[in-house]
Amino acid sequence: MFNTLRFATYASLLTLGGFASSASAAELKVVASFSIIADFAKNVGGDRVEISTLVGPDGDAHVYEPRPADAAALEGADVVLVNGLQFEGFMSRLIEASGTKASVVEVTKGIEPLKSAEEEHEAVEKTEAGHDHEEAGHDHGHEGHHHGEFDPHAWQSIHNAEIYVKNIADAFCEADKAGCATYTANSEAYIARLGKLETEVKAAIEAIPADKRTVITSHDAFGYFEHEYGLRFIAPEGISTEAEASAADVAKLIDQVKHDKASAIFLENITNPRLIEQISTETGIRIGGTLYSDALSGREGPASNYIDMFRYNVNTMQAAILGS
Ligand SMILES: [Zn+2]
User: Fold this and answer.
1) How far does residue 146's CA lie from ligand 1's centre (Å)?
2) Domain finish residue from 192, 211, 244
3) Are 98 and 242 in the same domain?
4) 238 with 169: CB under 8 angstroms?
5) What is the distance in A from the centroid of ligand 1 to the CA of 62?
6) How far is the first Cα of the chain from the last one, in angstroms, to the nearest whole number?
7) Distance from the CA of 127 to the center of ligand 1, in angstroms?
8) Any keyword Signal (predicted)?
């Protein structure tokens, strides 16, 4: 399936991406499932690691279709970093197909996962509907979905990002003992920067009046942000972008907005703007900009690393709410 021509294409992509020049110097070949984990890995690994990213800037890992090059990258990897919590639906099949011997590390290990709101909602519906409904195989139209019991977007809490970074440092130490002192020092320095970022974020949220803290995004990507920092997010789509919002979901959200008085509405960099544009038109709430939910921006964008992403999201929300 992965013929030599495809391997050649992969090699030239690496060259174009600027990875090949450092390949000989790197001690560890690392595959990161998506851009945010890749940024953490770069901060921990520095020059000792060569990183390939499967789902790149502005990419949507929920619905990602792997390419042959991805299997080739996995096959040659020493360490594979994944979010877990069923964020990367494509990953287990890809790992199996690649035959990789790399250690596969779930970087959310040790966080306190939040239950997916959708899951709680379904549990209530099932209780109300009783057993007959379930026996009839009624599945709320959710057949074929891969998202799970927990909200996977744990990186939207800076405290969790610190856990991601520690797990990455541990994984690198395990795979490259000679570099462990470097990985530990790099991760400590980066975690100190995250601590400063968190102080900044909390101050920015405190500056928003309590009655203006409800905002709308397109999917439920900000549950951990809400839990940690106290803004309230509502969205027509659930914790995965896999299922498009139905007309009923949108109507329900518009109805909810009339009661809850959302202060701002935002596009997301990974999703189609159409739905948010429609809700903006129907509610009269002006679009306050784009939030980076599940991916970084490209290098030239405003959110090309995690710290910039977080700062940009908070500044964008604060400006939209206070300006409204
Ligand atoms: Zn998401």
Assistant:
1) 12
2) 192
3) no
4) no
5) 6
6) 54
7) 27
8) yes
